[in-house]
Amino acid sequence: MINIICVSCPIGCDMTVTKEGEEIQGNQCKAGIKYALEELTNPTRNITTSIKMKCGSMLSVKTEKPIPKGLIMDAVKVIHEADVTAPVKIGDIIIVLDCGVNIIATRDFI
Q1: Distance in angstroms (rounded) separating the CA atoms of residues 87 and 68
Q2: How far apart are CA 84 and CA 8, in angstroms?
Q3: For 48-105, which CATH class?
Q4: Cα–Cα distance between 79 and 95 in angstroms, integer?
Q5: Annotated domain spans of the chain
Q6: Which percentage of the chain shows pLDDT scores above 90?
Q7: Residue 12, by phi and psi: left (phi above 0), alpha (psi -120 to 50) or beta?
Q8: Which of 29, 59, 76, 108 is deepest in the core (most CB within 10 A)?
Q9: Which of 9, 106, 103 is closest to 47 using CA atoms?
Q10: Are 32 and 10 in contact (CB under 8 A)?
Q11: What is the CA radius of gyration of the chain?
Q12: The dihedral of CA 60, 92, 77, 5: what is its sign?
């Protein structure tokens, strides 16, 4: 059995799941079932971090959508090796990761 706290909604159900995902207990909505099964088969996470600009300032960025948990360290390495110059607008694509997910700016930098 695996204990999982669901983050699909504000309730934060404390769920118990078998390793095979055959039995899920503790969820209060259907979103919990989906979340538990995804956590067992392909857990994903969002990345929020900063990139150093050529001028020395920092630019906050994030993944446009979650990436597989196993790719996080490689993605962070690519992000931190990036060389970005101004101007940057919120939502601009800064990097496209090998997994096809965009790293986007979360603020303007003029």
Answers
A1: 30
A2: 34
A3: alpha beta
A4: 7
A5: 2-41, 48-105
A6: 78
A7: left
A8: 59
A9: 103
A10: no
A11: 18
A12: positive
